[in-house]
Amino acid sequence: MHHTQVRASRALRAALLLPSLLFAACSGGDVVVLKVNVNPDSSGTVSVRGMRARPEPATYEAATKGAEWQDRVEAFAVRGTFPALAGLDLGGITFAPSKGDNGAKSLRVTVLLGEDARWCKATAPAIADQKRVSTVFQADGATGTVGTEATLMIDLPGEVIGVGHAPGVRGVQSSREGKRATLLLPVKSVLERAGKLTFDITWQ
Length: 204
Description:
Blueprint: H1 3-23, E1 32-38, E2 44-53, E3 73-82, E4 93-99, E5 105-112, H2 118-123, H3 130-137, E6 149-155, E7 160-166, E8 173-177, E9 180-186, H4 187-192, E10 196-203
Parallel strand pairs: 1-6
Antiparallel strand pairs: 1-2, 2-3, 4-5, 5-10, 6-9, 7-10, 8-9
């Protein structure tokens, strides 16, 4: 096999494996994930993964023959660090930590909705694209819920003792387990409602 063919073959395998490695066994809320891990000094790490409809040809298409590619989905994952939680802005998701006299700590997360939800537009398929993107992404071509929900996970340095969100938005759910607070956000509800949502967390 010629060197150019070997390189093309490797590029094709890598491109085809990427979504599987990133999102194996994913359900609707597992594909679009924003995860914040907070250290005791308020610094931490943040990782984001998502998917979008891709209008332009993918890199691996040049390595193939005999197929007319019609629909494309782009999956991505990024990871970074931040020096202070109060200065973190995830495209319209901001964080305001505080500490009470009783030793309990609180965190208010503000999530922008509607036209201002840049975080959602950048990580999840547009409402009009959701069905097509989900079908393309799944190997069997079945219509599913992939990319229809976003999950915000916040890992804190202590036990989470309370969570809640306001106002009530259709399908939005807040929960806690151990040191983690989670907010599940249906993409359709986020994009169709203006304003903002607050996610309040108490931990110790």
